[in-house]
Amino acid sequence: MSKVIIIDDEPLARSIVKEYLNKHPEMELVQECNDGFEGLKAIQQHEPDLIFLDIQMPKINGFEMLELVDQPPAVIFTTAFDEYAIRAFEAHAIDYLLKPFNQERFDKAVAKWRDQKNTTTDKKTEDLLETASLSPSQSQRIVVKNGSKIKIIPVQDVFYLEAADDYVKIHTQEGYFLKNKTMNHFEEVLDKQHFVRSHRSYIVNVQQITRIDPYEKDNHVAILRSGIKVPVSRGGYGKLKAVLGL
Amino acid sequence: MHVSLFSVRRFLIIFSIAWLVLITDHALVLQWFGLPWTAAISDSLISNALLLLIAILLLNTFRYYVPDMGQYMSVLGMVVVFTLFWLLISQWLLGLILIDYANYKIFLHKSLIIRFSIAFLILGIIAMIGIIWFNWQDQQKNEERKSDAEKLAKEAELFKLRQQLQPHFLFNSLNSINALIGARPEEARKMVQQLSDFLRGSIRKEENQFITFAEELEYLQLYLEIEKVRFGYRLKTATDVTPEALTWKMPSLLLQTLMENAIKFGLYGTTGEVLISLQAKVDDNYLVVSIENPYDPDMQTPKGTGFGLKSVRRRLYLLFGRNDLIEIHQQAGSFVVIFRVPAEEKIAF
């Protein structure tokens, strides 16, 4: 028996998947979810083998939800139309269902999942999420998990980012949040006109900087509006000067 | 604010030549009347330099305030005032500088009426040129606005077509129909009908057309019915429209764009139930429409909603020449857009 979860904000879209699942008695639908918040909770609770996941959903989209899952289950994406998502799927050879789809197409996707079940798809999912986070709607905000709560941080509210082992600390007005990503990821995703890698371990929001002071020899330190000091290396100083037009 | 006449090169050349002729002529006439050369030339230079300043002042006044061609009296009054002003200063200045010439004071006094007449004629001609020039500019601006409005309406039309034929909306609706066919075929049939009527309506709409609020509302209703089938219990709408508002004429597609915005913003910006309220009434000779949707202050505006609002604002400006017809209020979890439509006779063209 395989455990299945459907995550879609439209009730009829869930019901059609449910209907098609009837033909697969070996798959048990353990929960239907209205949005990514419910979805995340259900995945942690049930540890499903497969999820059907819609992309455009309230507040956080399907990709952003997946980013927050520690051990993502296998996913069959269902979407009506989303240029970025479809491009991301194509780029990483990931199967997806375009709404509306029929039983035949559905069965095929399930069969494909079953064939690949034993091969690991974690890497693929990770790559997919990496691509998806470059989309214009997603690069404007960072979704993080704060305990059991989900927090959406608009990028302009970020003071600076700091490397912390396997995580990145995102410093904001309300303290810092951890995200399971690399500094290189953020350096690529964030708008280069507003976020500068000032140091190997720091990315700073340029709009928060009030001044840059020399610090010891060769190094500088950026003073933010909140008074916080962020290290600036020699290379970082050059990048900052270029962005600030100095 | 208009473009100054002096920035037009051809005018500047003609104007300068005219002034040189005026100065020479003035001096020649004075000499003919028996003034010594030096006095004649000084008088001419002083008078005409002052007149030039007054003429520039007059034209600059028109840059900010252009009287209508119909307001003859106010133009006449303005020219008389400017001429008298000139006369006063030039008389004082000439008296002061040329006091040494014998009999000049008497001559000056006697020639005042002639000086006034000539200056009045010159300033009158300049005023007329100025009015024609600035009125022509106004007209050109209006033309520009009109063609911009047409272009934008066409763009809105295209944008809307794209919206309606918007793949996301269309495919999701088809997906809902697909689900209904198995479970509730009657409802599926109804939704096919609604979707067809809606699509047909979006193709048939003519650009820049004014329709009654009732017509726009009827069309909107189709859209809302479809969205309600898609989103089920999550989407609730409340409409409160006075009978007076129903017959008011308004530009087509405005309401539709804003409602789509509100729904998208509400449904994708929050979780849980979403109530969209629409109110319309006639107040002080305006149709006042307010659209309210819940919003989560933690969220950023979803992509695309900005464009809808911007295009509506721009269309209202192009149609009515005003920027104050749309307002946005964000407070305590609600996002309200209020727009006003003037009575039809107030429409710019």
Overview of the structural elements:
In chain A, helix 4 packs antiparallel against helix 6. Chain A has 8 helices and 15 strands. In chain A, the strands form 4 sheets. In chain A, strands 2-1-3-4-5 form a 5-stranded parallel sheet, sandwiched between helices. Chain A is 33% helix and 34% strand. The mean pLDDT of chain A is 90. Chain A is of the alpha/beta class. Chain A has 2 domains: 131 residues, Response regulator (Rossmann fold), CATH 3.40.50.2300; 92 residues, LytTr DNA-binding domain (OB fold (Dihydrolipoamide Acetyltransferase, E2P)), CATH 2.40.50. Chain B is an alpha+beta fold and 349 residues long. Chain B folds into 2 domains: 140 residues, no CATH class; 117 residues, Heat Shock Protein 90. Chain B has 10 helices and 7 strands. In chain B, the strands form 2 sheets. Chain B has a 5-stranded mixed sheet with strand order 2-4-5-7-6. In chain B, strands 1-3 form a two-stranded antiparallel sheet. In chain B, helix 1 packs antiparallel against helix 2, helix 3 packs across helix 4 and helix 9 packs antiparallel against helix 10. The two termini of chain B are 21 Å apart.
Could you name the CATH homologous superfamily of the largest domain in chain A?
Response regulator
Helix content of chain A: 25-40%
Q: Helix amount of chain B, in percent?
A: 55-70%
Average predicted confidence as pLDDT of chain B = 85
Strand content of chain B: 5-15%
Mass-distribution shape of chain B: rod-shaped
Query: How many structural domains of chain A?
Result: 2
Order of helices and strands of chain A: EHEHEHEHEHHEEEEEHEEEEEH
The backbone outline of chain A, from C-alpha atoms, is elongated
Q: Please name the CATH architecture of the largest domain in chain A.
A: 3-Layer(aba) Sandwich
Low-confidence segments of chain B: none
Biggest β-sheet description of chain B: 5 strands, mixed
What is the distance, rounded to the nearest whole angstrom, between the alpha carbons of the first and last residues of chain A?
A: 64 Å
The SS-based structural class of chain B is alpha+beta
> Would you report the number of β strands of chain B?
7
CATH fold description of the largest domain in chain A: Rossmann fold
Q: What's the CATH first level of the largest domain in chain A? A: Alpha Beta
- The N- to C-terminal Cα distance of chain B equals 21 Å
